[in-house]
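Consider the following input, taken from an annotated entry for Aminotransferase class V-fold PLP-dependent enzyme (Aequorivita iocasae).
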Amino acid sequence: MKNYGYEVVDAIVEHFATQNGKLPVVSGSRKEMEALFLEDAPEKASDPRKVLNFVLDEVMTKSNIVSHPKSYSFVPGPSNYISAMADSLASGFNIFSGGWAASPAAAQMEITAMNWLLKMFGFPQKKGGGIFTSGGSMANLTALVTARKVKCGDDFSNAVIYLSDQAHSSNIKAIRVLGFRKEQIRIIPTDSEFKFSLNKLKNAIAKDRLEGLQPFCLIATAGTTNTGTVDPLSDIAKICKKEDIWFHIDGAYGGFAILAENGKQLLKGIGKADSLTVDPHKWFFQPYEIGCLLVKNHKWLKGTFTEKPEYLRDIEGNTSEINFYDHGIELTRRFRALKFYMSVKTFGMGEFRKAITYNVKLAEATEAFLRKSSNWEVISPATLAVINFRYNPIGNKLSEKKLDALNQRISKSVVDSKQALLVTTVLNGQVVLRMCLINPRTTLDDVKETIALCESFADEKITV
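Applying the prediction step yields:
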């Protein structure tokens, strides 16, 4: 067992040590993958090392390296080695992190880690609470279930929920899972800076009240996936308080920017939320999967999710002993808090502050570099380490349709080259290249090399 374990650790360390020099992008068709993996379950045992080597050679080499310095798309996953080893401990000891009786230490560690986050975001530490989830999608779902229970009870037939056109798709998915009809959802257009339009929001709420409906929840975003934009949180908080609407902030992407220089100013009002989603496996450098939901009052979670089946009657402790299966959807829970706790204890919060601040400044430096070029147009400025831009050389006078096609082809050529992962999004009807720069391993030289690669493909295509 030890020898086998050492081989696994050696493989992980080798990956950490060499990933920067590898190509970040891979490809594989369904036919190619089936040729490698499609088989009946074997009846007889196999040599464990042969199985391990097969996995290392054919699985680990056929996945994009999301922690690579030139992986810019979606939201990269930089990860860290301490947390990877913590996950190994949690799995190796097979810790059940659902109830206090099964693991009081795991429960208390989650409480402690949660208190660190409550303090970080200005939530009350004694009254507040939260739960670690698989990711932001589950955290958002948990928040909306709680909001519906607290604000609507058992009847939500007239309830209305509000979110912007830049809100993350997981929120729409959660709303759909909860059984809300299409006519109960208000998607509010954003302004020219991709922020929640307050006037349109107020108009929608007023109209719904006049029609006898119940505005019950509003979802704002602290760091949209498309542009990194932060909604006007303080202003929205005032509207929610006046209208008695649950205020949920999806900070899965940008929430941890509160640790950066000037981060608190950018995220002003985040502590006014009733509930907040943050995603440590994004901008807190944790391996997948760990999301988190914070709430102003821990009793809201318990009042929403507690069930008392007969088979759990003997493990209900006193009221100070938190059973996290009573605070969320999952009964069976892996020990996610361990990796967060161990990495914070090992590196110290100061290192995380430095890394996040570095990423914010890297995106700003990227914007400055692009603005000095006659080839590039910044469409959405650097905001919380996200920047959107497109190839639009001065003097070429290409139509919008040709510009869209050109930038789409640039992205495809870059990805096909496997040298960088840089894909497009659409802003105001324009196809643009989007960089998300939350990886502290990424340097400005990496960015400049990628821009030069884009230009080389653009020059090839523009002559066609």
